[in-house]
Amino acid sequence: MAWSKKQLSTLLVVVVTSFMGTFLVSSINISLPAIEKSFGLDAVALSWVVTAFILASAMILLPAGKWGDVSGNARLFKIGLIIFTIASIFCAIAPNATWLIIARFVQGVGSAFSNTTGQAILVSTFPLKQRGQVIGFNVASVYTGLAVGPLIGGFLTQHIGWHSIFWVASLLGILATMIAFMFLEKDHLLRKESPKIDYRGTVLFMIGLPALTYGSSLIPSGAGWLLLVTGSILLILFWVLESRAANPMFDTKLFTHNRLFAFSNIASLINYTATFAIVFFLSLYLQKIKGLAPQDAGMIIIAQPLMMAIFSPLVGSWSDKIQPRYFATLGMAMCTIGLAAFAFLDEKTPLWVIVVILLWVGLGFGLFSSPNTNTIMSSVKKTQYGQASGTAASMRMIGQIFSMTIATLFFAILFDGETVSEVSVPTFLSAVRRGFATFALIGFVGIYFSSARGNLNRD
Length: 459
Known about the structure:
By secondary structure, this protein is mostly helical. Helix content is 80%, strand content 0%. The chain has a single domain (5-186, 249-451), classed as Growth Hormone, Chain: A (Up-down Bundle), CATH 1.20.1250. The longest helix is centred in the N-terminal third of the chain and has 32 residues, at 128-159.
C-alpha cells in the first residue's frame, strides 16, 4: 500500500526530530572529558551535563503526553522544537558549568514535548498493519543519531571544540522547526472535551524524581540518603494519588488493567536502565585508559548504534507479522550477555573485543526496541496514544536516569570527589566493572518481563 503525501511528510518531520535529540545526547557523551577540562568539573558534576537533560525530559514526558491528548499533539510538538533550539544556542555560549547544566535542563524540556507528541502523531497517521514498519523507521533515526553522534561529536570536539556540537544542534533544531511548520498538519488528534485534569500527583512526581536523582550524587552524605528516601516516598505518593484521582494526569489503570502495556513498559524501563550508561562509561574508559582522542573513541562507540540503526526497521516490519515479544526477549537476553562481558574490562582488553561486544549489544537492542514500542502503542485505544507515547518515553528517560544514577553512585562512593582524569586507574576500572555487573543483573530481570507479557492481539 502506497503512502500518502500526508503520511510521508509526517514521517519525515518526526524522523528528523528523533535523529536530532539522540545525535546531541551521543555527541555530548564523547565530549565529556573536554567539558571536564574546560570547567574543571569533578566526576559527579560532570555526570550532570548528561543527567540534567534526561531528568528534565523524564519530569515533563508524562504530563506532555496528557497535554497532547487534550490540547493537540502537533501544537505541542512545534513548541518543543522551538524550546529545544533556543536552549541549544544558550548551551553553545555557556560561560560556565552552571549555565551549561541549566541550559541542558531546558533543552530536555523541549525534547520531551516533541518526542512524546511525535510518536503519537506518527501512530495516528498510519494504519495498524503498517505501524511496526514506521516505528522501525523512527527508531532507526534515533539510532542513526546515536551512531553518527560520537563520530561527528568527536571530530568537532577535537578540531573545533565542544561548543560547536551545540551550534550543530541549533541548526538541526531550526531545520526541524521549519519542516514542522511547513508540513505538519493540525488534525492528528481525535479532539474531545476533557474534564479538568488533577495535577496534584504530577507535582509530587516532578519533585520526587529530581530529589531521587540529585540525592544519588550526594551519597554517602546524610543529605544524599535523605533526598533518596524523600524522593522515593514522593514517587509512591504520586502513584497513590493518581490511582484515586477522577481525572489523573497519569492513568495507572493502563498498568493495573493492561498486562501487555504494563510488562512492555517495565521491560523498556529495565532495558534502558541496563544499557544507557554504556556509552558514558566507554567514552571515559577509551579516552582515560586507552588514551584515544575523542574522534577515535567515537569511531569505536559507533559500532553499537550502527547495528541498532540497521536492524530496527527490519525487525519493526517483522513484528507486524510475528509476535513482537519473541524478538524483544531475544534482544534483551543479548544485551544482558553483552553487559556481563563488559564487567570484565581491564587495561589490556583489546579494542577489537570491545567492538565485538558493542556490535552484539547493538543487535540485541535493535531486536528489542521496535517490537517493544510497537506492542506498547498497539495495546491502547487511539484516544490514549498521547498518554501511551508519553508513558513509553517516560520509561525510556527514567531508565536512562536510573542508569546514570547507578553510574554516578559508584563514582561518588569510590572517587572521593576526584575528577576522572585525577582518579587512579584501578579505582576507575573498579567503578566501571561494578557498574556493568549491576546492569547485567538488572538485565536478567528484564528478560522475565519481556517474555511474560503475553501476545499482541492484532484484531
